[in-house]
Design a protein that fits this description.
By secondary structure, the chain is mainly beta. 15% of the residues lie in helices and 40% in strands. The strands form three sheets. It has a five-stranded antiparallel beta sheet with strand order 1-2-3-4-5. It has a three-stranded antiparallel beta sheet with strand order 6-7-8. It has a three-stranded antiparallel beta sheet with strand order 9-10-11, with no helix packed on it. It starts with 12 loop residues before the first strand and ends with a helix. The model has no long low-confidence stretch (mean pLDDT 91).
Length: 163
Amino acid sequence: MTTSLVLLDPTKIRLAKDRGEWLLLTTEDNPEPVRVKPARCFPLTEPEHYVSLLIDDDTEYGMLYDPRQLEPKSRRVLRRTLERMYFLPVIQKINSISDDLGVMRWDVETSKGPRVFEVRGRDDVRLVTQGHVVIRDIDGNRYHIPDLSKLDANSRLMMEVAL
């Protein structure tokens, strides 16, 4: 079985919202709407590029290399859908990290306001690239620190212990 990557021409497609989590895709060749679900192929390292459009059974319909080339309405619909799906607050300051029997309780300031959450262990605090950390809490929510060096000194010190 061979599969090939289908790169979609953003100037020849339109996206609209249905009532659920799906988007409706129409193309110049096929005006009949197809339900697709977007997925970022590289959500941390290339969030603005490589968006896969999946159909019902998670089969890839096609790939958008640069969604910013979509017409404005389609671009807005896609951006809002992806923002909802990939809600990823940025940790700007760490107030405290306490450890109780291997469960770490984090009190932080994020781009979405103050948060307190628990992390099962060090395996859920990952250095993705040099200086970029992703943290997953016990509820499956993710938070990230794009650049450790931009945290204040106290926050950096706590991160050294957490890593």
